[in-house]
Every structure is written in C-alpha cells, then in structure tokens.
Design brief:
α4 packs parallel to α5. α2 links the parallel β2 and β3. The mean pLDDT is 93. The chain is globular, with a radius of gyration of 20 Å. The protein has ten helices and 15 strands. By secondary structure, it is an alpha/beta fold. The relative contact order is 0.16. The chain has a seven-stranded mixed β-sheet with strand order 12-11-7-10-9-8-15. Strands 3-2-1-4-5-6 form a six-stranded parallel β-sheet, with helices on both faces. A two-stranded antiparallel ribbon has the order 13-14. The chain folds into two domains: 6-130, 3-Layer(aba) Sandwich (Rossmann fold), CATH 3.40.50.720; 133-296 and 326-342, 2-Layer Sandwich (Dihydrodipicolinate Reductase, domain 2), CATH 3.30.360.10. Keywords: NAD.
Length: 349
C-alpha cells in the first residue's frame, strides 16, 4: 500500500495522448508530474513538442531523461514513438518506476516481451494504455456478457477507422518509427477489447490482407493504409477487424471505433463515439463534430495510479499489450505471405 503524493514522469510528447494524460494527472490532486521530451529536437518542423507543448498543458519540464530520473519518479508514462517504447520502458524499470506504456507496447514481439520481462525483473508494475477498455459502453457490454445475456459469443466484427495521421505527428506513417501503417496503428485497440471479452480463449489462426489503395497519391506514405484482419479463437469464435485510414481528410472527426459481438442468444453493438452532435457549419462551409462522451484517459490514469497505491496489477496489463502485439505480428506475416498464420508462429523481430 502506497500513501502520500506520487511522482509521475512523462516520457516524450510524441504520442498525442500525452496531453490527455497530463490533464488527467493534474486533475487528481495527489500526484506531482515532470515531463521530458528530448525527441523534440529532431521532430519535424511545425510539430509542437518539448517545452512549448509542456507549457501549453501546464506540465513542469526538463530537457533530458537524465534530469527526469534524477527527480526519482515513482512511475513513468511512455508516450514516445512506438519504436522507442522498449528503450524508454526499460529505462523506467531500471529506475524502479512503475510503467504505463502507450499502445502498441512495441513494434516487435521480441521487444514487447523484453518490456514485460524488464518490469517483472525490476519488480515494477506494467500497464498498457488501451483507453477503449474504459469506455462506459464497453464496461456495460462486459457486464451483459458476464450475466449471460447474449449467450456464448460465436463471432465479432470490429472497426477502427481514422484519418491518415499526417501533419501534427507525422511519425505515424514512418514504418521505422511506427512499426507499420494502419494495421499496426488501428488493430491493437480491437484486439485488446476482444482479448478482454473472450478470455480465457486465445487466438489460434490469423489471416490478414492489406493494401495502399487509400491515399496512394501521397508519396510520403509508403506503408499500408487499409487492412482487414480475421482471427479464429480456440473455441471457434471468428473475429474480423477493419483497420484502415479510410476517414476522409475533410471529415469533421478523426474517425471512430465500433465493435459488434454476436452470441447464441443475442448481440451487442458498441459505438463509443456515437455520443456526439454533428452537422454542417454553413458559415465556414464544413462539418462539425461535438463529442460529449466520457474522456477515457481519466479512468485509465486513475486505474494506473490506484493500482500503484494498492500494490496490485493494473489492467490492461503488459501481458495484454504483448498479446495485441502478437496478433499484429501474425497479421503482418499473413499479409506478407498471403496465407493464414498460426498464432505464435509469426517472426518475433
């Protein structure tokens, strides 16, 4: 049991959720925060990073991770580019800090396992940042499933579609930094939700197809922009995941996520981003989208901090993050070979 104020370090502002986490931490009143974003020095011009970003969000700031760790944080939140997650998470673990890591946990299975192992060896907690776990619709769906209201789940269809992520955080379309394209960016959220509702069943077979038809005119994009992933689980449940940057650039919103669960006695449809007011702004000749749903970053941060105080494993765990990376790796192998891949047989690096 941990009492008193906690010191939480923010490692990088590369991921746009960093601002939400800062806001959620500051709203608690029982933590002190310190941020550092050394990658800002090499970020593309026009991206607001580093001290400027920290000032905009009200976060105290230091220029280097060395200074951050001299502060001796109790926990760190890793918001760096996907390819840097392993190095940053391992640094946090070595410093004795509990780790909350952005999704995907890593760009390879080997790196994801290394993060899990490093935190276990250091005796620190590891949580993966899957905010969709905390949407009220998903929590209600899990309760309905536990109560047996739709019987045994036999199928699922998930969509996670968004705009091409260029502009504010262009590293999302850099295969080296992101680990891939739309398949990596968008599959993991649905994979984690399925993991939560289908456990203890596990994936057995993965088949995926990807292409670059969407945004083919953009020479800066060299990875997949559209994809479809099919996952067969150990009990025969078949899930399909649409992971595409298919939202038009002119759309009023970045995109959205949906999940339909089919059971032997009913079905459940989840659309967290349906809580909105939308229409057309005649004065500016464009659409508008005003969401009024819950800010999922708040309960996510609360789970992390509360678990540290209680001395228990936060959820989603590092193992959940690892399983999502394993599904992505299998899907990437399937798309490359144009054949189904047995889960766990995809390359680890």
């Amino acid at each position: 049991m941990t009492t008193g104020r906690l010191k939480v370090g923010i490692m990088s502002f590369a991921h746009p959720h960093a601002g939400n986490y800062i806001s959620a931490l500051l709203s608690r009143g029982d933590v002190d925060i310190l941020a550092s974003d050394p990658g800002a020095a090499t970020a593309p011009s026009g991206e607001i990073r580093g001290a400027e970003y920290a000032a905009q969000h009200g976060a105290p700031y230091v220029d280097s991770y060395e200074e951050l760790f001299r502060w001796q944080p109790d926990a760190v939140i890793v918001c760096s580019e996907n390819a840097h997650h392993r190095v940053d998470a391992e640094a946090g673990a070595r410093a004795g800090a509990h780790v909350l890591c952005e999704k995907p946990l890593a760009t390879t299975v080997a790196d994801a396992r290394a993060i899990v192992d490093a935190c276990e060896e250091a005796g620190v907690l590891l949580m993966t940042a899957f905010p969709m776990r905390f949407t009220p619709m998903f929590e209600a769906a899990r309760a309905a499933i536990r109560d047996g209201r739709i019987g045994e789940i036999v199928g699922a269809t998930g969509t996670n579609n968004g705009k091409l992520p260029v502009g504010g955080r262009s590293w999302f379309v850099d295969s080296e930094l992101a680990g891939g394209g739309a398949l990596v960016d968008l599959t993991v959220h649905i994979a984690d939700l399925l993991d939560a509702v289908l456990a203890p069943e596990v994936p057995e077979l993965v088949y995926a197809a990807t292409n670059r038809i969407l945004h083919s005119e953009n020479s800066a994009v060299t990875n997949e922009t559209g994809g479809l992933v099919n996952v067969t689980y150990s009990d025969g449940t078949i899930a399909t995941i649409d992971c595409s940057w298919s939202q038009p650039d002119s759309a009023a919103s970045w995109g959205g996520l949906t999940l339909q669960l089919i059971g032997t006695e009913g079905s459940i449809d989840i659309d967290p981003f349906a809580l909105r007011v939308e229409g057309v702004d005649e004065a500016n000749a464009n659409g508008f989208w005003l969401g009024y749903g819950a800010n999922n970053s708040v309960p996510l941060i609360n789970e992390f901090i509360t678990a540290i105080r209680d001395g228990r494993q936060p959820e989603p765990s590092g193992q959940a993050g690892l399983r999502a990376v394993e599904i992505v790796a299998a899907a990437q192998e399937s798309a490359a070979t144009r054949s189904a891949v047995s889960f766990g047989e995809a390359p680890s690096d």
